[in-house]
Design a protein that fits this description.
heterotrimer, B: about 180 residues, alpha+beta, Alpha-Beta Plaits, three-stranded antiparallel beta sheet, two-stranded antiparallel sheet, 5 strands, elongated, C: about 400 residues, about 0% strand, globular
Chain lengths: ~550, ~180, ~400
C-alpha cells in the first residue's frame, strides 16, 4: 500500500500499480495538463507542461520535504510518501510560461484550423495561459505537406510533442516519422520516398494535441463543435475496436478510436477508420418491396416500373412477410455475422415461432489475408466481420448450427419453402450469383441487405436494412468480449434496422430496444450470461462466466 | 399566497401633494402635453413616397454582404464561426481547400437564407476576418422563397453594390494571410 | 307621420356617418398625439386620389362587412346574436328625444329638430335606454361563454350601475333649475338666462362629465374591454358585422354623452349674441343654432378623444372608489347647493349671474379641496392594515 498526497488529498495505490504523477492526480480528480505524454507511448517529458511541485513525506516524522525545482509529473512515479502540489502559484506560472513559449511560434489561425474546438493548446491556454501576449504575432504561412495518403502536416502549428514520432516507432514499428533539424527549426517530417503509409497512420491525427497533423479524409469537412459523438464498435474485422462515431444531422463525418484497454487500447486501423462511406452511398437500398405474381402481370406496381416490385409501406410489407412466411411452411434462416446478438436472437425466435424445425445457418464470414499484428500487439484480424462468435452462439442454441454451404443442398432436398437471408456486408461481392440462385430455389426468398447484390435481384421479399452506425446492439469479438453500443444516426428513409423489423414481426409493443433483448438473451443462453448485468463502455468478457460455469 | 406573505414586497405609493390629490390639475397638465404633441412635427416617414434616411449606415443591420479582399477574391475563410453564432441557423457553408497558394481554406458555397435570418448581426460580430457584414439595404423583397436564399455570388454582388457608399467596417482582417494577423 | 320618418332617416344616416368619421378622427388624433401621421392613404376608390385618408371609413366599412362572421360553437346562439342588436338599437333609439337644434320655421308652424317632439320625460327616456345598453354588454359577455368576455360583462355591469348614480345626481340639479324633464326646456332655460348650467353648478358639471365618460366606457374607464387584461372583454368572441355593431354603439354612446353634456350644461344651441332666444326665429338663426350645437358637440368629443390618449386606465378598485367615495358625495353636495340656491335665492340666476357663478365656483373649489384632503382614494393595502382586517 503506497500512500500518495496530491493537493492535500490522500490516496492509496495498490501494490502492483505503477502510476506516474498525471495518472495519480487523475485518481483524485485533478487534471495535470500535458502535451507529450500519452499513456500508450514512452515518456519523454519534453513539453514541460505537466510541471508540478513534488516532495516526500517522511512516514515516521510526518515531515514533508519538497524538491526545490518543479518536476514533470509524467516522469515522476507516485511512490509511497510522494507529495505533489499541482495548484500552487509556482506551478501556475510555469504552465503560463510554457503556454507563452509555445504560442510564440504557433499561428493564431484557430478559425481555419480543423482542430479548433478539441485542441489541447486552445483549452490549456484558456485555462492556464496568460491573458496578454507579449510576443509579436507571427503571420500564418500555411506551410503544409503531405506525410502520406492519409495525413497532412501543417508545419507551423506543431508544438513538437513528438507523440506521432514515438507512435511510429513504438506502436507500429514502422519508423516513418521523425524530427528533422534542431532547436527552433525542428520539424516533423518523413524521409524522402518513404511516406507515412502504415495501417495505423490515422492514429497520429488523434494523437496530435494541436492541429498540426490533419486527417486528409476529414480535413475542412466539418467543425468539430457541430458534431455529436456516439459510442460504437468497429465492424471492419473481428477485433471489434471500440470507436466513436462523430455525426451531424444523421451524417457521419469521421470515426475515431475509443479507449478500451481490453480490445484496442487507444488505436484503430485505417481500414476501420476510413471505411464508412458506404453508409452514405447513393446505392444504399431504400424502400421495401414484395414481388407479387398477381401484380407483375399488368404492371400496376406502385413505382410504375412494371417490374412487379412495387415500393410499399413498411407496415404493409411486414404484415405481408409475416403472412407469406407463415403460410409457406418450412423455413431456413441465414444469420449474417454483421447482425447484432439481439437481432440474431430475435430472428431465430421468430423462425422457431413460424417453423419449430427451422434450419439456422450462419452466413459466410469473409476472410481476407492473414492477421496483421503490430509491434506493440495491436492486431488487424483477417476475419472481416464483427459478430461471428455471437451469431454462432445464438444459432447453436436454436438447433443444429449449419454453415451456408451445408444449408444449400438441403433447400431442395428438404423442401424448404422460405429462405430468410440477412446481409449487411460492406463488401459488395459477398454473395456470388450461383449461391444466390441456389438460395432462390426456395419458393420465398426474404432478404435484408444494405446494397444491391445478385441475391437482392432474385429475392421475393426485400427489406433494406441498416449499417453499423444506425444499429444499436451488441457484438461479440474474436476473444468472446461482448460490447453493447447505441445507434449513432438514423437509417435513411426507407430502410429499417433488422432489430426493429423482427420486433414488429414478433408482435412486441413499443419501440425496439436492444437492452431489453440482451437481458432476455443473457437469461436464455448460458454463453451470454455475463451480459445480463450492465454492459459497461469496455464490454464484458463472456468467457469469465463460461469458466466459472465449467 | 396571502397578502401578508413575507415574500411579497410592498411598494409604497408615491405621496401626492394637494394638487395631485385634487387630480384635476394633473389632468390639465396631461392634456397640455397631449395637445402639444397634437401639433408637433410628425416623425412618420411616408414610405414608399419618401425613402427613409438611415442615419448611420455603418451600424444598420440590413442585407448581408460578403466582402472581397484587395484582389477581388472572397474574403471569407470558411471558419464557420458565423454559422456557429447564428441563432436562426440560416447560414450554410461548405468549406474546402482554397485554390490560391496564400490561402488555406475558402467557402466553396456560402448561402444565407434571408427569410430565416433575424438580422441580429451576430455573424458580423463573430467573423474573424470581417468578411460578412450587414449593409444598410433594408427593402429586401422577392417573389419566391428560393430567390431569398442568397448564394455566394449574390452576396458578393451586394458587396459590389454597396462598397462605395459603405466602406468595410475595419481593415483589420485585410491581409493576404487568410486574414490572420 | 311622413315628417317623423324623414327625421328618422336623416338622424340615423347622420349618426352612422358621424360614427364612421369619428372613428377616423380618433385614429388621426391617436396618431397625432403619438407624433405619427395616421391613416392618410385611402381616398377615392379606384383612383390614386388620396384625400388625406378621408376614404378610410368607407374602406373600413366594406372590410368589416366582408369579414367572416364567425359564431363559435360554444356560445349561446340566440343571446349571442341578440346582444349586439340590442345595444345598437338602444343607442340609436336614444336619439329620438335629442334635439339637434331648435326649430325650423315653416308656413305650417315650426318643425322641431327632434324625432319625437313634445316628449315630456325625455331625460328619463334617455336613462332608460342607457340601461338597456348595459344589457347588451352583459348579454354579450354571458352569451360568449368565455371567461374573459364574462369578466368584461361583469366589470361593465358593476361600473355602469355605479356611475348611474352620480350621473343621475348631476341631472337632478339641472331638473331643479329647469323645472322640467324636457331636454328642450333645459336648453330654453339656459338660453333665456344666458347662464349655462356649467356656470351655475360647476360641481354638477364635473360630476356629470366624469360619470358620462364612465357610462360611455371611454378611457380612462374602458375596463369592460381592456385589451391588455381581457383581450377585448365582452366582445372577444365577436367578429365581422356584429363587432362593428358593438363598436358603432360605443361611439354612439359617446355622441349621446356629448349631446347630453352640451344640452344639459353647455347651453345646447345657445351662444351669446349669435342665436337669439325664443321660438320667433328665421331659418338663418335656425341654421346657426344647429351649427353652434354641432360645434360644441364636436369640441366635447375632441376632448373625449384627447383624454383617451392622456390618461391611463383606472384599476378596478380605484374605479369603484371613485364612483362611491368621490362622485356620489360630490353629487349630493351639488344637489344640496343647487336646492338651497333655488329655494333661498330664486331669480338670482337672472338677477345676479356673476355672483351666482363666483359663489358656486368657490363652493365647488371648497368641496373639491376638502375631498382631496379626505383622500378617500388613498391606498390602504398595507399588510399591517390587512392583518387587522383578517383577525
Amino acid at each position: 500500500m503506497a500512500k500518495v498526497w496530491i493537493d492535500d488529498q490522500e490516496i492509496e495505490l495498490g501494490d502492483n500499480e505503477r502510476l506516474n504523477g498525471i495518472e495519480a492526480a487523475r485518481r483524485v480528480g485533478v487534471e495535470v495538463p500535458h502535451y507529450c505524454w500519452h499513456p500508450g507511448l514512452s515518456v519523454v517529458a519534453s513539453c514541460r507542461m505537466c510541471l508540478v511541485e513534488c516532495g516526500t513525506k517522511n512516514s515516521e516524522t510526518g515531515e514533508v520535504s519538497m524538491l526545490p525545482k518543479l518536476v514533470p509529473a509524467c516522469q515522476t512515479p507516485a511512490k509511497d510518501g510522494t507529495v505533489m502540489v499541482t495548484n500552487s502559484e509556482k506551478v501556475a506560472h510555469a504552465r503560463a510560461f510554457v503556454e507563452e513559449a509555445l504560442l510564440i511560434d504557433h499561428p493564431i489561425d484557430c478559425p481555419i484550423c480543423d482542430k479548433a474546438g478539441e485542441c489541447n493548446l486552445q483549452d490549456y491556454h484558456f485555462e492556464h495561459g496568460q491573458q496578454e501576449r507579449r510576443a509579436d504575432i507571427k503571420p500564418f504561412t500555411s506551410r503544409r505537406r503531405s506525410m502520406g495518403e492519409t495525413v497532412t502536416l501543417f508545419v507551423d502549428r506543431c508544438v513538437m510533442c513528438s507523440r506521432c514520432v514515438r507512435f511510429c516507432r513504438e506502436v507500429t514499428g514502422t519508423n516513418e516519422l521523425m524530427v528533422v533539424q534542431r532547436g527552433a527549426h525542428e520539424e516533423i517530417d518523413v524521409f524522402p520516398g518513404f511516406p507515412l503509409e502504415n495501417k495505423l497512420s490515422g492514429n497520429v491525427v488523434d494523437l496530435c494535441p494541436v492541429g498540426a497533423l490533419g486527417d486528409s479524409d476529414f480535413l475542412y469537412s466539418q467543425r468539430v463543435w457541430f458534431m455529436k459523438t456516439h459510442n460504437g464498435v468497429c465492424t471492419g474485422c473481428s477485433t471489434g475496436c471500440s470507436i466513436q462515431i462523430d455525426e451531424n444531422q444523421d451524417k457521419v463525418y469521421r470515426i475515431r478510436p475509443r479507449t478500451n484497454p481490453h480490445v484496442n487500447q487507444w488505436w484503430m486501423c485505417d481500414d476501420g477508420r476510413y471505411n464508412w462511406r458506404y453508409i452514405h452511398d447513393d446505392a444504399r437500398l431504400i424502400g421495401p418491396s414484395v414481388s407479387d405474381p398477381a401484380v407483375s402481370g399488368n404492371g400496376a406496381s406502385s413505382n410504375g416500373d412494371g417490374s412487379g416490385l412495387g415500393l410499399m409501406e413498411w407496415s404493409t410489407v411486414i404484415a405481408r412477410v409475416d403472412d407469406d412466411v407463415r403460410t409457406a411452411g418450412k423455413m431456413a434462416v441465414v444469420l449474417s455475422p454483421h447482425l447484432t446478438v439481439e437481432e440474431a436472437y430475435l430472428l431465430c425466435t421468430y423462425a422457431r415461432d413460424v417453423d419449430p424445425d427451422a434450419l439456422i445457418a450462419v452466413g459466410p464470414a469473409p476472410v481476407v489475408g492473414e492477421d496483421e499484428t503490430f509491434s506493440q500487439g495491436f492486431t488487424i484480424r483477417a476475419e472481416k466481420c464483427p459478430n461471428r462468435r455471437g451469431v454462432e452462439e445464438v444459432a447453436a442454441v436454436f438447433g443444429k448450427r449449419l454453415t451456408l454451404d451445408e444449408l444449400l443442398p438441403k433447400i431442395t432436398r428438404d423442401g424448404i419453402q422460405t429462405v430468410w437471408v440477412t446481409g449487411g456486408y460492406p463488401q459488395a461481392d459477398w454473395m456470388d450469383e450461383a449461391t444466390a440462385n441456389q438460395l432462390a430455389a426456395a419458393q420465398m426468398l426474404v432478404v435484408q441487405d444494405i446494397a444491391d447484390s445478385p441475391l437482392w435481384q432474385v429475392a421475393t421479399h426485400k427489406m433494406p436494412s441498416a449499417t453499423f452506425a444506425e444499429k444499436e446492439g451488441s457484438y461479440v469479438n474474436f476473444s468472446n468480449r461482448l460490447q453493447s453500443v447505441p445507434w449513432a444516426i438514423r437509417p435513411p428513409a426507407g430502410a429499417r434496422t433488422e432489430g426493429s423489423v423482427y420486433w414488429q414481426l414478433l408482435g412486441r409493443s413499443g419501440l425496439y430496444q436492444s437492452k431489453i433483448v440482451l437481458k432476455e438473451v443473457a437469461s436464455e443462453i448460458a454463453f451470454f450470461r455475463a451480459a445480463g448485468e450492465d454492459v459497461g463502455e469496455h464490454g464484458v468478457d463472456l468467457t469469465i462466466d463460461m469458466l466459472a460455469g465449467a | 399566497m396571502q397578502a401578508n406573505d413575507p415574500d411579497i414586497l410592498w411598494v409604497e405609493e408615491p405621496k401626492l401633494g394637494l394638487a395631485g390629490k385634487l387630480y384635476l390639475p394633473l389632468i390639465a397638465q396631461g392634456l397640455t402635453t397631449t395637445t402639444r404633441h397634437l401639433f408637433s412635427k410628425k416623425i412618420t416617414v411616408s414610405y414608399p413616397d419618401t425613402e427613409p434616411e438611415i442615419a448611420n449606415p455603418l451600424i444598420y443591420r440590413g442585407v448581408h454582404r460578403l466582402n472581397r479582399d484587395e484582389q477581388g477574391r472572397v474574403k471569407c475563410v470558411a471558419c464557420f464561426l458565423c454559422a456557429t453564432a447564428c441563432p436562426a441557423h440560416c447560414i450554410d457553408i461548405i468549406g474546402t481547400e482554397s485554390p490560391w497558394p496564400d490561402r488555406e481554406k475558402y467557402p466553396e458555397s456560402f448561402t444565407i437564407d434571408e427569410l430565416r435570418c433575424i438580422y441580429c448581426g451576430m455573424c458580423e460580430e463573430a467573423c474573424p476576418v470581417d468578411a460578412i457584414e450587414l449593409t444598410s439595404l433594408y427593402n429586401l423583397t422577392g417573389r419566391t422563397r428560393e430567390e431569398m436564399v442568397f448564394d455566394k455570388e449574390k452576396l458578393l454582388s451586394v458587396h459590389d453594390q454597396t462598397i462605395d457608399k459603405e466602406p468595410m467596417r475595419s481593415q483589420g482582417g485585410a491581409t493576404s494571410q487568410g486574414g490572420f494577423p | 307621420m311622413l315628417e317623423a320618418l324623414i327625421k328618422i332617416v336623416v338622424v340615423i344616416g347622420a349618426i352612422m356617418t358621424a360614427v364612421a368619421y369619428f372613428v377616423l378622427l380618433e385614429r388621426k388624433i391617436a396618431a397625432w398625439v403619438q407624433d405619427r401621421k395616421g391613416p392618410n392613404r385611402v381616398g377615392l376608390p379606384l383612383t390614386k386620389v388620396r384625400l388625406f385618408g378621408l376614404g378610410q371609413p368607407l374602406a373600413d366599412g366594406v372590410k368589416m362587412m366582408l369579414k367572416e362572421e364567425y359564431i363559435p360553437g360554444h356560445v349561446d346562439k340566440a343571446l349571442y346574436v341578440l346582444a349586439p342588436i340590442s345595444i345598437l338599437a338602444a343607442a340609436l333609439a336614444t336619439f329620438a328625444v335629442i334635439p339637434f337644434g331648435s326649430v325650423w320655421p315653416t308656413d305650417g308652424g315650426p318643425i322641431e329638430f327632434v324625432v319625437a317632439p313634445g316628449f315630456d320625460a325625455g331625460l328619463i327616456y334617455v336613462f332608460a335606454l342607457s340601461g338597456i345598453a348595459v344589457y347588451g354588454v352583459i348579454l354579450g359577455g354571458w352569451a360568449s361563454n368565455n371567461k374573459y368576455s364574462f369578466l368584461g360583462g361583469l366589470r361593465s355591469s358593476a361600473q355602469l350601475i355605479a356611475y348611474e348614480i352620480p350621473l343621475s345626481l348631476g341631472i337632478l340639479g339641472i331638473v331643479l333649475t329647469a323645472g322640467s324633464l324636457k331636454l328642450d326646456a333645459v336648453i330654453t332655460q339656459q338660453a333665456e338666462t344666458g347662464m349655462w348650467n356649467a356656470f351655475v353648478q360647476p360641481l354638477g358639471f364635473i360630476v356629470f362629465l366624469v360619470a358620462a365618460t364612465a357610462e360611455a366606457g371611454r378611457m380612462p374607464f374602458d375596463l369592460p374591454e381592456a385589451e391588455q387584461e381581457l383581450i377585448g372583454g365582452f366582445h372577444t368572441e365577436y367578429s365581422g358585422m356584429k363587432l362593428t355593431m358593438y363598436a358603432a354603439a360605443e361611439f354612439m354612446h359617446m355622441i349621446t354623452a356629448s349631446f347630453l353634456i352640451v344640452i344639459l350644461f353647455l347651453g345646447g344651441w345657445h351662444f351669446w349674441g349669435l342665436t337669439g332666444s325664443g321660438d320667433q326665429i328665421t331659418w338663418v338663426t335656425a341654421l346657426i343654432r344647429v351649427g353652434v350645437l354641432c360645434g360644441k358637440i364636436f369640441l366635447v368629443i375632441l376632448g373625449f378623444m384627447l383624454v383617451r390618449w392622456t390618461l391611463p386606465r383606472f384599476r378596478f378598485d380605484q374605479l369603484m372608489a371613485l364612483a362611491w367615495k368621490v362622485m356620489l358625495p360630490l353629487g349630493m353636495v351639488n344637489l344640496v347647493l343647487v336646492a338651497a340656491m333655488v329655494e333661498y335665492f330664486p331669480g338670482a340666476i337672472v338677477d345676479r349671474p356673476l355672483i351666482v357663478f363666483l359663489g358656486m365656483s368657490g363652493l365647488t373649489l371648497v368641496s373639491l379641496v376638502s375631498m382631496a384632503i379626505l383622500a378617500p382614494l388613498g391606498s390602504k393595502q398595507q399588510p399591517s392594515t390587512l392583518d387587522a382586517e383578517m383577525t
